[in-house]
Each structure stands twice: as C-alpha cells, then as structure tokens.
Amino acid sequence: MKINLNNLSISIERDQNKMVKNEIIKRGIKPENIERIEHVKRSIDSRKKSEIKFVYNLEITLKEAVSNLHKDFSIPKEIKMEKRVPKKDMGSIAVIGTGPAGLFAALRLCEYGFKPIIFERGEMVDNRDKAIESFYSTSVLNPNSNIQFGEGGAGTYSDGKLNTRIRSGYINKVFLELVESGAQENILWDYKPHVGTDILKVVVKNIREKIKSLGGEFHFNTLVENVVILNNKVVALDIRDKFGNKERLPFDRVLMGVGHSARDTYKMLHKNGVFMENKAFAVGARIEHPRKDIDEMQYGKFVNHPLLEAATYNLAYNNREEERGIFSFCMCPGGVIVNAASETGGTLVNGMSYSTRDGEFSNSALVVGIKENEFGDELFSGMKFQESIERKTFELINNYGALTQNVLDFMNNKTTTRQLKSSYPMEMKNYDLNNLFPEVISNNMKYAMKHWEKTQRNFISKNANLIAPETRTSAPVRITRNEFGESISTKGLYPIGEGAGYAGGIVSAAVDGLKIVDYIFTDLVD
Ligand code: FAD
Which SUPFAM superfamilies is this protein grouped with (predicted)? Predict the structure, then answer.
C-alpha cells in the first residue's frame, strides 16, 4: 500500500532521515511496516532566517495495508498518461528545430512508429561548443550556431532549471526521459530541479541517439529557408546546408519548433501567409551578485550549511497603476552570464550554470513586462523593439559584449566609473542604462529596486551589478493554432514550443512537443 505525507517541515539542523521516519511513526505507522520512503518533492523554507527548514512531500510504501490512517496521510492519485494509438496514413513528417519542443516531438513520433526527418540550422553539441568558444575569443558570431541555435536549442547552454508553472500529465514523461538520458535522479523529487549545462549536453546527445535508433533522421547545419505553402497547405520545405547547397523536399506535415530567436523564420512564415500575432514579453538586464551575498540573503546564519545548495530567489513587484509586472527570471545560482546573440550586429545576455552551481557569482534576469502592442500595433513591433535594443548595444560597444552599471549608480542615473567584476566572458562597457532603455523599462526597474532595497538584504547594494540587455525572455509573437494544434491559417503546419508562443522554458516546450504530437498523430483510446 502507498500513502502520501505532504508539507512535512523539518529543521535543517536535525538529522533528516531520522526525523522523517519519526514523523511517520508519530502518526501511527509501525516502523516494521515501512518498506520504503520516497521524496515526491523537497523544497526549502527560508522565510524565517533563524529557522530554515526542508519541506517534504513523501510517498511511503507500506508492507501491509493500514485502515484508519492519520488525517495527515492521503492515498496517492495515480497520474496516468492517456492511452493513444497512432493514426495511419499521416504522410511524410518533418520536425524543424532540436530544442526541447522539437526533440520531444520527434521522440514521440518515433515512439508511435513514424520516422520524422529533423532539421536543425545549428551544429551538433560538440561542434556547437567550439563555435561558442570561438565566438567568445574572436567576437566572430556564427549566426546558425550559438547560444540560441544548435543541437538542444536554447536550453543546452542554460541553468537547466526545470521549474514550470504548467500542470500536465506529460511532465512526468519529460522528467523520466531526462533521467533515462543522463540527468540527475533528484530532479524527480526536488522542488527546484536543475540539471546544469554540462549534464544537459550529455542528455541532448542521448535523446538524439534514442530518436535515431527509433528511425528518426537528423540533418544538422541545415536551415529551413522556406516553407512552401500551396492553397493554404504545407507541401514542401526549402532547405540550405552550410555549404549553401539548396534542396526542395516534399512534406505533408511540419512541426515547427524554431524557438523565439529565429526572426528570419518568423518573417518568412509571415511573408508566406502564416497567421501570427503580437504577444506580451519582457525586457531588462541581468543582475549579478557575489554568490555569498545571495546565499546570505536567503539563508542568514545558515549560509555555509552543508545541506544547502547555492541559493535561488524569485522576486516580483507589481506596478498596479500601470498593470505591469517587474520580476526576476531564469535565476542562475553560482552561474555565469553568457552572450546570447544570434544575429550579426546585435548583442544581448542571458545566464547559465553548471550542475555544481559553485561559481563565484549568482545572476538572474530582472525584467519589465511589455504589453503586446506597447511599441506599435503592426505585427513584429515587439520583435523590432528587442532588435533595436540589441543593435544599439552593439553600436555603443562597437562589438559583441555587454553594457554594465552598478545597481546603485543605475538608481542614481550615474555611469559607473570603476571596473566591475563579473562572470561575463566578453567585453563590458560601463554605460548609464537609463539611456539604453525607454523610460517604461528603466523607471519600472527602479520602482522594483526601491521596493527590494527595503525588503531583500544585500540585493540592492554596491556589490550588485547590471549586465545588459536581456531582451529574449520569451517570444514576442504567437503563431496562432487551433484547438488541434494546427496553424489557423495553414494546414499541415504545427507550431510548437516557445517560438510558437505556447511555451516558456525547457519543460513546457518539451510538454508542448509531446502534446501536439498526441493531438495530431494519434487517436485517444479507452
Ligand atoms: P529552442 O530551444 O529555442 O529551439 C529552437 C531550435 O530551432 C534551435 O536549435 C534553432 O537552431 C532551431 N531553428 C530555428 N530556426 C530554424 C530554421 N529555420 N531551420 C532549422 N532550425 C531552426 N529555460 C528553462 O526552463 N530553464 C533554464 O534554466 C533556462 N535557461 C536558459 C538559459 C539560456 C542561456 C537561454 C538562451 C534560455 C534558457 N531557458 C531556460 C529557456 C529555454 O531554453 C527555452 O524556453 C527552450 O529551449 C525553448 O524550447 P524550444 O524547443 O521551443 O525552442
């Protein structure tokens, strides 16, 4: 028999295993009846700095069934994936992009016996590594192989945080698949699971090999230049390899998981009559602190406690008057700031970390919500705004790099004059970011900072620096789908993942890929 015990808090100063068992026994379970105790979730409650606790959701396997369970126990509800069988005669199927959406869609198709052809503009992970290293040392960007583009998509060079706000039976499958492909097992129960870029690279390669073993076919260094649409239906793809060789290949169905940075691909789709619309997104800067400052902010006197990892935070401020959120995003404890450019002549930052999260600094995006038509009603007005900030930054530095400013100087409209310390590997130029951003961004960042100055120790301090700009937090457009996951304008075209505007983050993009395949290529059975 299995039972759950949720929200069990135990001080980090106590022996965790012993206390967990004691708490179960205290609630009437005989010790000899406990077969196994598993963590379903474990989180840290650090709201009271004098008493930090782990909070557990547990699944306990009992050798014998027990009646009259204590009220704190519950019987687990089994989350089952719906049973599905593949449809027949679906024709030839292409998947564009090997980010989480494309990879998981391809995997699902293979599991159903389809043999998708997968196109990826960037290189396989090992060569992509070299392209990024070369970019950092030479400042020559490969617009098809960089932090955004290449095997594994934008998620490969990330912190690999797997938090998601969505609830879906598909999440379990994503996590199990990641573990089977080399991710740490504790992602199955940790409240804030993360993988780290070093392990993600292995995971991505293993998923690729699994797809290949099931009949999927990969074409790396292959840009889909054009989706050929006839009578509002996809009929073919025009592809170009890295030597410039072009080919037109007929396809009946295309799953499009191109991410939010493929501006050329968005424009091509629009030109070909695919319907899309502007959507809200967010823009701001990375904020970076010495890791110890953030650990102290979150853990107080427990700062170096051996059971505690590098601390994370999640901050949000609501500007009610403007109905606008200002929030931290994609926090990378013990991580590094990276240059996330994918277009020649534009520069921007993002953050990633390694599985150990033991770097000297901790960083996070600090961004201001931008409404869907805030910079103009015409399609792509938001995307053009992102692009203009990236280009302006490039022009100010006269290279790829980042603009930097101490937080206190930013709040006082003063250019920082000292050289700032950062994990960022490329050129940094001190600049008053109030002159980079429109007021709607800089003013709102300051409102939030003033609030956090009072509420979050160490957060707004001489040690906190801004590295800018952070422009690509989410897609600025949505390629609108119908209830079956198909483009509302174009038959046979299935936009998936973050670029489609239906996901944000690794897990939700992967779930979207799985879900849309199930919608389209299978029938639900009882
Ligand atoms: P993407 O991952 O963007 O993949 C799209 C793929 O399509 C790319 O590989 C691209 O090369 C390819 N492509 C584009 N156009 C074409 C074309 N025309 N032809 C062929 N191929 C094409 N999310 C988290 O949940 N946790 C994190 O810790 C996290 N950290 C991040 C850190 C960084 C540095 C970045 C950049 C992003 C991070 N994210 C994180 C966001 C996350 O990576 C994305 O939400 C996720 O990867 C989106 O998945 P996707 O499959 O929809 O698109």
Answer: FAD/NAD(P)-binding domain
Structure confidence by residue, pLDDT tens digits, 101-124:
999 999 999 999 999 999 999 999
Count of domains for the chain: 3
Would you give the distance in Å from CA 412 to the centre of its chain? 33
Q: 95 and 51, same structural domain?
A: no
Q: Tell whether 196 and 297 lie within a shared domain.
A: no
Among 118, 202, 117, 232, residue whose Cα is nearest residue 489: 232
Q: Whole-structure pTM over 0.90, yes or no?
A: yes
Instruction: Determine the Cα–Cα distance for residues 387 and 341; give it in Å rounded to an integer.
Output: 11
Q: What is the ipTM of this complex?
A: 0.99
Helices marked H in 429-483? 439-455
Q: For residue 504, which atom of ligand 1 is closest to its CA?
A: 45
CATH number at residue 24: 3.30.70.2700
Cα 148 to middle of ligand 1, angstroms: 6
Cβ atoms of 161 and 100 within 8 Å: the answer is no
Let me know: does 120 contact 101? Beta carbons within 8 Å: no
Domain extent, residue 379, equals: 280-470
Domain boundary among 424, 451, 470: 470
- Same domain, residue pair 315 and 461: yes
- 96 Cβ closer than 6 Å to some ligand 1 atom: yes
pLDDT in tens, 227-257: 999 999 999 999 999 999 999 999 999 999 9
